[in-house]
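Sorry, can you check?
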Amino acid sequence: MNQRLSPRACAACLALLVASCTSSPAESVPDEPERLSWALQDGYVPSSVQVILDERLAAAGCDYEVDAETGMLRLLEDFDTSRNYYITYAMVADPAHPELTTGIAFGNHRDQALVRRLLGIAETAQAEPPAGMTIGLNATPTNDPAIFRVSRGLQAEGLRVAIASKSDPSQLDWLDSADFRYEAGAGEVTLGGGRAVDADTQFLFLSGQPSARNVFQLGEHAKNNKVRVVVNDRRLVEDVDFVVDKAAGTVTILDDAFRAGGAQYHVAAGNLAIGNHVGGDRLLELLRD
């Protein structure tokens, strides 16, 4: 079962990723002369795709198209990547849980205020996260309804927390800093100030910078499946280029090219995949055992 989202769905989540586009944008893959294309990740929601070219919101079928079979997004006009562009979409890694939607954003657009206006994202009084790679996570409930666990360590500085609707993940109720407490060591968020999450209709969403950019939390996926990692055009070797901690469910990338920053990467285990790689057929070839 896939959840149908309006073209503006997840826009609020994706706003939090604008900062990441200024640090390490995904690179384009030439499709044919003077045409650019990008591979969208498996599980992308077609109705959520939005493209900004320079100072306008591009139109599907006129400015770009997405191949439903391959997930390739292709521009239909000549476009030099030195110009401003920005692409966002939502993906659902597990069709059984459409409420666990992840926002993906990449590009080189420098005018964040313009991007927000074009995506219909309201400005908030809360400060923006610090510049750098920003990620969004859905927190996991515990037996205590006020405490939630985070699957990946986040820096306390600039952390933002919101209560989101399962039926429409773009509806985010951002909490004041006084309404939650984040314990980085324990990886837990505790709600206060009378704020609560209705487990049947809502979930807790966090946005911030990872505390360790080379460590990925795959949880049960890493414990029960083979982990495959690709950086740029290389399939990495376990226990040489990356290590897996089965007990903690984490993957730590040791590869120098990744740690230097700006690399394309893909981390996969079971039906979970994380990364920004746009390698298309080449990526599939590298992942094949």
